[in-house]
Design goal:
This protein is of the alpha/beta class and about 425 residues long. The chain has a domain of about 290 residues: Rossmann fold (3-Layer(aba) Sandwich). The chain has eleven helices and eleven strands. The strands form three sheets. A six-stranded mixed sheet has the order 4-5-3-6-7-8, with helices on both faces. The protein has a three-stranded antiparallel sheet with strand order 9-10-11, with no helix packed on it. A two-stranded antiparallel ribbon has the order 1-2. It binds guanosine-5'-diphosphate (GDP). The site of guanosine-5'-diphosphate has 14 residues, from α2.
């Protein structure tokens, strides 16, 4: 065994070399088999004005006819006046892995004259799904928890080429703390490449300006270069400019592809040079589906849950709350830091004042010393001057020097010379 030992919550963990095969290297396979057997649940929400191609894109993404082709409503038809929430589920399977896919549609969003509260039914729906999950967690029997929480929200931006509309900003601001937002530029085939590029910049600038958090794929350390490059490539495409189509069309060089046919050529859905559809699918399904589920559970749901329980007066383990609530944690850290700074400043001021006082006292003392020395010197000079003057007068008048008029301390030596 290696002598390396680490201290872990009071108990010592010693690294040992195994003498033979034990079998726990198979753990990942066990987890893998079990989760494959159980299957996966994934719920994605689509939001955006009608006609932006939401149903088409979902069908294209999962390669199924999840949504029946919509007949456009005749102008005379009775239109709903509120945003409704509809969900469709489908069990799909790929290489033996089963996925229960639920798509939550929000027809009516952005379609009214007054769209002020369009976001509200959507927030309510997301929260009621959190509620349902919390209720299951609080049951005595928690064996079969069904996760119907929304794991991702595809937000369709109209391809105006300008910037985000107030309704887009309002929706994202209301939702970003509750769901993984993935912004999408709809029907990208209606814009030129340059227009797409500029529009993306403006959308990103708006998102940053309004402090909106969109889903960011985490970049882990210790990952191989290829994976890092791939992840960065995905991140660089946000907001994904997509084209949806379930139609197979013929390209000029005779290939059959999913795409949209125009007089000037064919836009291929699955061609990365034509649009970001492949990258969006990679983000949503191939690379980050589990990450989206985890982030929903560990961050979005957890924050909502803590707030809800605190609001209900449940005294939480505050340290746990802080762990999962980075905002509370930073606020507390900042407060601590500020008190520390203030204390340090006060101490420094005190020391400084003390030093100044000492210095002043010393200066005063040396000033006094100087002054008295100066006075002594002046006195003695004055005495010498008087003496000399006296002597001079005597010499001039020819009178001998009288001992009583001279300085008693100096007269003898002076007289004899
Ligand atoms: P939804 O109301 O948002 O679900 O939109 P639909 O998926 O029903 O699509 C509305 C119309 O837009 C249909 O006629 C689609 O064929 C068309 N459409 C869908 N996706 C695209 C796209 O990427 N580009 C273009 N040009 N048209 C699209």
């Amino acid at each position: 065994g290696s002598p390396l030992a680490s201290q872990n919550s009071g108990s010592t963990v010693v690294r040992k070399k195994l003498m033979g095969y034990v079998g726990f290297a198979n753990l990942p396979n066990q987890v893998h088999r079990k989760s494959v057997r159980k299957g996966f649940h994934f719920t994605t929400m689509v939001v955006g004005e009608s006609g932006l191609g939401k149903s088409t894109l979902i069908n294209t993404l999962f390669n199924t006819q999840l949504y029946p082709a919509k007949e456009p409503l005749p102008p005379s038809a009775e239109r709903p006046k509120t945003v409704s929430i509809e969900s469709i589920s489908a069990d799909i399977e790929e290489n033996g892995v089963r996925l229960r896919l639920t798509v939550v549609d929000t027809p009516g969003f952005g379609d009214f004259v007054n769209n002020d509260e369009s976001w509200k039914p959507i927030v309510d729906n997301i929260e009621s799904r959190f509620d349902a999950y919390l209720e299951q967690e609080n049951r005595v029997n928690r064996q079969k928890i069904v996760d119907n929480r929304v794991h991702a929200c595809l937000y369709f931006i109209q391809p105006t080429g300008h910037s985000l509309k107030p309704i887009d900003i309002e929706f994202m601001r209301r939702l970003h703390a509750k769901v993984n937002l993935i912004p999408i530029i709809a029907k990208a085939d209606t814009l030129t490449d340059d227009e797409v590029f500029n529009f993306k910049q403006r959308v990103l600038a708006d998102i940053a300006f309004h402090n909106i958090h969109i889903f960011q794929a985490p970049i882990y350390e210790n990952e191989d270069e290829e994976t890092v490059a791939e992840n960065e490539e995905i991140a660089s495409k946000i907001p994904f400019a997509v084209v949806g189509s379930n139609q197979e069309v013929q390209t000029a060089d005779g290939r059959t592809v999913r795409g949209r046919s125009y007089p000037w050529g064919v836009i291929e859905v699955d061609n990365e040079d034509h649009c970001d559809f492949v990258k969006l699918r990679q983000m949503l399904i191939r690379t980050y589906m589990e990450e989206l589920r985890e982030h929903t559970n560990n961050v979005l749901y957890e924050n909502w849950r803590s707030e809800k329980l605190l609001g209900m007066g449940v005294v939480q383990d505050i340290s746990v709350f802080k762990e999962i609530n980075p905002a509370a944690k930073t606020a507390e850290e900042r407060a601590l830091h500020e008190t520390k700074l203030a204390k340090m400043e006060a101490e420094m001021k005190m020391v400084f004042q003390q030093k100044v006082q000492e210095k002043e006292a010393k200066l005063k003392q040396s000033e006094e010393e100087l002054y008295s020395r100066h006075r002594d010197m002046k006195d003695s000079l004055e005495r010498q001057r008087l003496e000399l003057e006296d002597k001079k007068r005597r010499l001039e008048s020819g009178r001998p020097l009288t001992p009583e008029r001279t300085n008693p301390t100096k007269k003898k030596g002076f007289l004899r010379t």
